[in-house]
Each structure stands twice: as C-alpha cells, then as structure tokens.
Design goal:
The complex is a heterodimer of chains A (241) and B (307). By secondary structure, chain A is α/β, with parallel strands linked by helices. Chain A has helices spanning 44-52, 74-79, 97-104, 111-124, 126-130, 141-153, 171-186, 198-204, 222-226, 229-236; strands at 6-15, 18-28, 33-38, 59-64, 67-68, 82-85, 159-163, 190-195, 207-212, 215-221. Chain A has ten helices and ten strands. Chain B has helices at 3-34, 41-61, 68-95, 103-124, 152-174, 176-186, 188-193, 198-224, 231-246, 251-271, 279-293, and strands at residues 132-133, 142-145, 148-151, 226-227. In chain B, strands 1-4 form a two-stranded antiparallel ribbon. Classes of the chains: A alpha/beta (241), B mainly alpha (307).
Chain lengths: 241, 307
C-alpha cells in the first residue's frame, strides 16, 4: 500500500469525564517518520488509541489521506491501511508465532499474499522463523518485540503507529529496533512513532511533536526540536541522557 | 457385574458426556470472548429441542407423509439454525450492551432471560407445562453382541455429537474465524487493532455456542424421547459445572468436564444402593469436592491466555 498521510485537527479525547487530550492537532506527512514525544501521562498513548479508534475522540477530526476516520469502528480504520505495534508489544501469548502473524493480516483474504508477507517478515527476522510453531508467550522479550513489529507489517500498512517500541528492551535491542523502523520507513511506509527516548527518536524522525499535559507544546522538524535543548530538558529531565 | 452391563453403562455414559460437553463448550466460549457467564444457556438447549419438536409437529401435521430422515434433517436444521440466530441476537441485544457493566449484571440479565424463555415455552407451546413426547425417528433396531445390545439410535446420536465436537475443534484451530475467536479471547483490544471485528466475532461465537446447545437439546430429546420446558435447568447447571470443572475458558477442559460429569453420574447410578435418582446428588457432591481440590478447574488457565 502507498504511504498514507494523517491530519489531526483539534481533537479532544477522554476516558469517562476527564479529558486526557484537549485541542490537539498533528500532521504526519506521507512517507515520513513523525514522532510524538512526551513524558509518562502526557497523553501520547491516548493519541495513538484515538487514531486507531480504541478511544474515539469526543470532538475534532482525524483524516487519513483526506478521509475522516474519527468515529469509525477500529477494524474499519485498520482496514483503511493503518498498522499498529501496540505499547507493551501485546502479542497473543497462546497463539503460535505464525498465528500471531496471521492476525496481523486478518483483513487480507488472499492466502498466497499472506504467505508471501510472512516470508518477508521471516527474512527480516529469521529468529521468528526458527520459532514459527512456538507459542508467543514462551518467547523472550526481544523476540516478542520482533513478533509485534512483524505482525504490524503483515497487513502491509500505509501508516504504521508504533507505541513505545523501546520500553523494557535492552539498549542493544533498542538500537536495532530503531534501525528496523528506519528501514520500514525507507520501504515506503509513513510512521507515527510514540516514544520517550528523545535522542534516538530524533535521530530517525523527520518531524516531531512534544506533548505535555494533553497539549502540543512544541512541534517542528527533528533538527528544530534538537535545537531546543532547554525544551527537551524541561519535559524529559534526564530521559534519554 | 457382567461385561455386557458395563458396556451398556459405558455407552450411556458416553452419550450423556457428549450432550454435556456440547452444552459446556458454549459456556466456555462465551466466557472466553466476553468474560461473561450466560445463565440462559440451558434454556437455549430446551428452546432448541422445542424448535425441533415444533418443526416435526408442523411437518407431520401438514399431512404429507415425509420420510423420517427428511423430518429429522428439518428438525436439526431448524433447531441448530434457529438457535444460532437466536444466540447472536441475544448477544447483540442483551450481552454486548452490558459490556461496560459489572459481570454480575450480565449474569442477572441472562438469568432473567432464561426464565422468560422457559415460562414463554410453558405458556405458549400447546400444553407446554407437561412433558412432551419427542418423536422417535431414528432406526429402532440394535446390534446384538453377546449379551450386549448396541442400539442404532444411540450409535447415531453418539456419532453426531462426536462429529460436532470435532468440528468445533477444527473451526477453532484451523479457520480464520477460529483465529479471530482465540485472539479476541486473549486480548480483545489488540485483536481489533489487528483488524479483527470485535462485535462480529462475539456474535459468531454466540451463534456457534447456541447452535451447539440446540444440537445438545435435540440429541437429548431423541435419546430420552421426551422433552419438557424445564429440562434446561438441570442441563444448564450440568453444562456450567462441566465447564468449570474443566477450567472455564478452555474448550478442551469443557469437553473433558462434560465427560467427567457423565462418568460421575453413571458411577453414582451403578454404585449407589438406593434409587438411581440420587445419581445427580452424587455427581454434584463430587463436583464440589473436585472444586475444593482444584479451585481453578482441571485445565485451569490464567485469564490472559484463554481458549
């Protein structure tokens, strides 16, 4: 699928009564890596959930390549070409590696196409092929991360939403993870990367937004954001060094 | 006790086991995808049996002399198809709207729905408060193997039940729908983020569970040649116990639980010196002991990795 753009205008999102996001606008250009930075509780994961429709916005618009998707059912939104690599990896523990990958291509009815994509995923992560028949719950953290990424690619998305991929992984694997994200993007997929790890994220991202207290407090190209050291320091303290 | 009698008890126990397993699988599937106990499930078993009964009455009453096989096929199709639709409708209008409510409310609403179904059949089915004879449409002969007689009808019913259980296993492990059901059971949110339609999968699960309940009802009717408006109470309690014995949420546990309960009843009927009506007391008492020993069920699973 071709790279998709995302345009969020003035959305308000909340659980029960409290608003977690208020008046947030964001644009992710087609073919770019757009990052969403912010500390814990800044609302960045809520924004990822709002785009997927898991927590639909109360007001505002979310346009995927110009089409308003706010309020659609989650599987409809995903069907328009969004892939998700959820926070905490969230592999299905009692499904095998192969079955997990198959869920990622649930909306693809062509079995041959699913097989081709699985071969591609196995080429990127040979480790997963070795463990193909194993239950995902028995994999190591790093392997589960690979599986979660592979699963997100199985639907051949035009926009991939990646939520905190480096959480809980060893530094070596975090580095590899960012390289994988860059390669996915170079293959023609728009990426919305939700992260706390400021330095490595700004190394791979084209543009970015900083969220704090449910609002956008800074935005710009990665270079511009890097040149705001005091801003970065203010919001992330020592995070990412 | 002679071998022929033991064989007879084994066949009878297996028959009961199949019926209970069919009911228990529904309980466990519903719990798997939605974390709910649907207490009207036993009454769906009964409604399935009465749907079949009404179908046969309608076909025979119309005066056409249809061969028994056709009548039987129509009964199965009407009961299984009708209950599949009915189950999906119940999920859509009773269970899913309460998704955000405490589980206890779902339990209560399905308990009341079960009473409504039961009383409606009693009131609206002609002479519904009396036990109804169920048509004997299966071949009546038997194989004589020494002292032991294996009736054709029991054999056909047993095979039907086992085939249904094997089909459920294949649907769950080999099909796209089965993958969706398992994914939703393990993590509904991530499943929808993968493009799996949550509502559709839940409705399909309730349709499958209710179709199996209908099948259990018809098999039960054909086996005992009698159905009654309150047959679902005991079958529901047994099916639920079987699902819990096996470990709620685990399909194979439910099947195992069904056969264990049938075995307990059969053992109770054989060993107790007093009337075999006490076999249920024996079986349920054994279930209580079993639960005290293995509170999570025999194939207990953590809530995170079900079905």
């Amino acid at each position: 699928m071709k790279a998709l753009s995302l345009e969020i205008r003035d959305i308000t999102v909340g659980y029960d009564r409290a608003d977690v996001l208020s008046g947030v606008s964001l644009t992710a250009n087609a073919g770019e890596i757009t990052c969403l930075l912010g500390a814990n509780g800044s609302g960045k994961s809520t924004l990822a959930r709002a785009i997927l429709g898991l927590t639909p916005p109360r007001s505002g618009t979310i346009r995927l390549d110009g089409r308003d998707i706010a309020g659609l059912a989650v599987h409809k939104i995903v069907g328009l070409g969004i892939g998700a690599i959820p926070e905490g990896r969230r592999v299905f523990p009692k499904l095998t590696v192969t079955e997990n990958l198959r869920t990622g291509a649930y909306l693809v009815r062509d079995a041959a196409l699913v097989a081709t994509r699985m071969t591609e995923v196995f080429r990127v992560f040979p480790r997963l092929e070795e463990r193909a028949g194993q239950l995902a719950g028995t994999l190591s953290g790093g392997e589960q991360a690979m599986l979660s990424i592979g699963r997100g690619l199985m639907g051949s998305p035009g926009l991939l939403i990646i939520d905190e991929p480096s959480l809980g992984l060893s530094p070596k694997f975090v580095k590899e993870n960012f390289q994988v994200i860059r390669r996915i993007n170079e293959a023609g997929v728009s990426v919305l990367l939700v992260e706390q790890n400021v330095h490595q994220t700004l190394e791979v991202a084209h543009r970015g937004y900083v969220l704090s207290g449910g609002r956008v407090v800074a935005e710009g190209t990665a270079e511009e954001l890097k040149r705001h050291p005091e801003l970065v320091a203010a919001y992330f303290g020592n995070h990412g060094g | 006790m002679d071998l022929a009698l033991i064989a007879q008890h084994l066949v009878n126990g297996a028959m009961l086991g199949v019926i209970y397993a069919l009911v228990a699988v529904g309980f466990t599937l519903f719990f798997g995808v939605l974390d709910v106990i649907k207490f009207s499930h036993g009454d769906v078993v009964m409604l399935g049996a009465f749907t079949a009964l009404a179908t046969s009455a309608g076909l025979v009453g119309s005066g056409s002399a249809l061969p028994p096989a056709i009548v039987l096929a129509a009964m199965f199709i009407a009961a299984v198809g009708g209950m599949a639709v009915f189950g999906a409708l119940m999920a859509k209008f009773l269970v899913l709207p309460l998704r955000k409510a405490p589980t206890l409310n779902v339990l209560l609403i399905t308990l009341m729905a079960g009473t409504v179904i039961r009383e409606a059949v009693r009131l609206f089915y002609p002479q519904g408060s009396n036990p109804k004879p169920f048509p004997r449409l299966l071949p009546t002969g038997a194989w004589e193997i020494g002292e032991f007689t294996l009736r054709y009808d029991s054999t056909i019913l047993l095979v039907t039940g086992v085939v249904a259980i094997v089909l459920v296993h294949l649907v769950i492990t080999r099909t796209r729908l089965g993958l969706a059901i398992r994914a939703v059971a393990q993590d509904p949110e991530t499943a929808s983020a993968m493009g799996i339609p949550f509502h559709g999968t839940v409705l399909a699960t309730f349709a499958i569970g209710s179709a199996l309940a209908a099948l259990a009802g018809v098999v039960n009717g054909l086996y005992y040649s009698e159905v009654s408006f309150n047959m679902g109470l005991l079958l529901g309690a047994i099916g639920f116990s079987a699902a819990v014995i096996g470990g709620l949420g685990n399909v194979y546990g439910a099947i195992l639980g069904g056969f264990i309960f049938a075995a307990l009843q059969t053992i109770g009927a054989v060993l107790l010196p007093i009337a075999s009506a006490y076999k249920d007391v024996f079986a349920f008492a054994a279930v209580i002991l079993l639960m005290a020993w293995k509170p999570g069920g025999l194939l207990a699973e953590r809530s995170a990795d079900r079905v």
